[in-house]
Amino acid sequence: MEAAMANGPKKQEKTAGGIDGPTNPMVTPLLTDLYQFTMAYAYWKAGKHTERAVFDLYFRKNPFGGEFTVFAGLEECIKLIANFRFTEDEIAFIKASLPLSCEDGFYDYLRGTDCSDVEIHAISEGFVVFPKIPLMRIEGPIAVVQLLETPLINLVNYASLVATNAARHRFVAGKSKLLLEFGLRRAQGPDGGIGASKYCYMGGFDATSNVAAGKLFGIPLRGTHSHAFVSSFMSPDEIIDKSLQSCDCSNACEDFVSLVQAWLSKLKWSHLLGGIFGETNQSELAAFISYALAFPNTFLALVDTYDVMRSGIPNFCAVALALNELGYKAVGIRLDSGDLAYLSCEARKFFQAIEKEFIVPDFGNMNITASNDLNEETIDALNKQGHEVDAFGIGTHLVTCYAQPALGVVFKLVEINNQPRIKLSEDVTKVSIPCKKRCYRLYGKEGYPLVDIMTGENEPPPKVGERILCRHPFNESKRAYVVPQCVEELLKCYWPGRSGKDREELPSIKLIRERCIKQLGQMRPDHMRRLNPTPYKVSVSAKLYDFIHFLWLNEAPVGELQ
Ligand SMILES: Nc1ncnc2c1ncn2[C@@H]1O[C@H](COP(=O)(O)OP(=O)(O)OP(=O)(O)O)[C@@H](O)[C@H]1O
Ligand SMILES: O=P(O)(O)OC[C@H]1O[C@H](OP(=O)(O)OP(=O)(O)O)[C@H](O)[C@@H]1O
Ligand SMILES: O=C(O)c1cccnc1
Ligand SMILES: [Mg+2]
């Protein structure tokens, strides 16, 4: 399918393999909550700061009323870890921010602190993930890992939320549609804008209008033009250089304006189109001609500034037909207001009528891009009504995650000094799952993922063809035997610390995007549907189940009735 106009040269694909600094220079060791430093001090004062702790980073509920989430933000987490060192200036600020009674030895400790003794296992970026399963397992000296809590959650939260939002928009739009992220002006500040472009691409968008994101990440850039461009022109008389070379450079049209006007009058009096429109808007005609003279190979026009059917479409077609006469192929139109289903269908009929009447092959397939406050619901409504839109430009609802502003990612201590820890709560969904764990995805006969299972670190892994009991972590009666056809270990070592393990490579954003699209395509459709999707099963092994409940009983005080 023809894309909306491509601006600028193709950028080299960026890889993160070498690990350099975080994209946003504000990501420093100070990008954390004060209480992480006060706790770090108290750990240090207690002589406990080097005790080895294991934390899990996970979320409790899928966003947007769905039953899946796309994991994103890992690369930026690893870049934070790789660069985690305090400058003197930062240490001076921490010193000024903590009570005077804090001893200097703590600041000497911070001076020598980095993440060389921290080990991170994580699910690969772009994977489809589910509640309670650790997205990352962070192991290291407790004081350091505690400092990492806030920035790691921050880097994963919006990234995963907006990537999921993008995936959901892709799901409702369908594979064949071109999805353009137009959100920069509406995003929550510069970081929101850059992050949105990166993670929407990861979640399945095709391109962004955000030039900085194009340069930073090699994301394809696309764009059209605005209403201001159209209304800035008064009439074709103001066009000075009217000449246009033919596409193959074999001849030059000295007066492209007259050629367009001739086509406009042919359209007006044609059999098929006669009577649909009268005088079109001359400001718009001048704008379209000027745009075509500037970009004859990629001409795309915003047709709703004055009146779509009575002016925008006929003006566009006259310019497109004039370009066609010179061997160029116009790209299409953008609709940015009105009933997008109706207008796209009417526009399509007009293009098809022209193809037939003037025998211009492919004119009927002209690209129709739609924009204007689009979201999952409006795209779903357009689908139900029937439409002829080929590309959607989506801004506000996509990048601000209008339907749900945050993903509830948490960071919980699961083990210290090899002792499993649990966090209890009145609300059972908030009880943490203790122990340093391994996580697996088990696939069924039909190739779909069936269940994710957590086991203790030292339990034997599930085996293909071998029956394993999968238990709901908190509901005794919910359990199932699974005979996996394929077993995939989810947590991989992305930062080995001093463990001597191999480090997983950080793939390029393009590879992550492909992985994400593949993963989403592998899910059983009932987990993905918009209305009442089936929850995906997240479970623990029988051994881990027993241990959770043993620890729960151990830690929960027994009440006394008086
Ligand atoms: N056929 C349709 N079915 C459902 N929603 C639609 C349809 N066509 C457009 N929409 C949505 O309806 C809303 C129309 O918004 P609104 O009334 O503010 O804009 P408008 O009047 O079309 O244009 P303008 O931005 O010039 O005011 C947009 O969110 C748009 O995405
Ligand atoms: O609607 P969104 O999903 O956020 O997509 C981006 C919008 O930004 C542009 O115009 P802008 O909204 O700035 O002005 P307009 O509403 O007057 O067209 C564009 O025309 C889209 O309508
Ligand atoms: O290129 C476009 O059409 C565009 C870009 C940003 C916002 N709205 C539209
Ligand atoms: Mg708008």
Automatic annotation (TrEMBL):
The record ties this protein, via InterPro entries, to: Aldolase_TIM, N/Namide_PRibTrfase, NAPRTase_C, NAPRTase_N, Nic_PRibTrfase-Fam, Nic_PRibTrfase_pncB, Nicotinate_pribotase-like_C
Q: Name one GO cellular component term.
A: cytosol
Residue ranges annotated for the Nicotinate phosphoribosyltransferase N-terminal domain, each copy included: 30-157
E.C. numbers: 6.3.4.21
Q: Which UniProt keywords apply?
A: Glycosyltransferase, Ligase, Magnesium, Manganese, Metal-binding, Phosphoprotein, Pyridine nucleotide biosynthesis, Transferase
Q: Where is the Nicotinate phosphoribosyltransferase C-terminal domain?
A: 436-547
GO terms in the biological process aspect are: NAD+ biosynthetic process via the salvage pathway
Q: Which GO terms describe its molecular function?
A: glycosyltransferase activity; metal ion binding; nicotinate phosphoribosyltransferase activity
CC cofactor: Mn(2+); Mg(2+)
One Pfam family cited in the UniProt record for this chain: NAPRTase_N
Top-rank taxon of the source lineage equals Eukaryota
Asked if the record carries the keyword Phosphoprotein, the reply is: yes
What protein is this chain from? Nicotinate phosphoribosyltransferase
Identify the taxonomic lineage of the organism of origin. Eukaryota, Viridiplantae, Streptophyta, Embryophyta, Tracheophyta
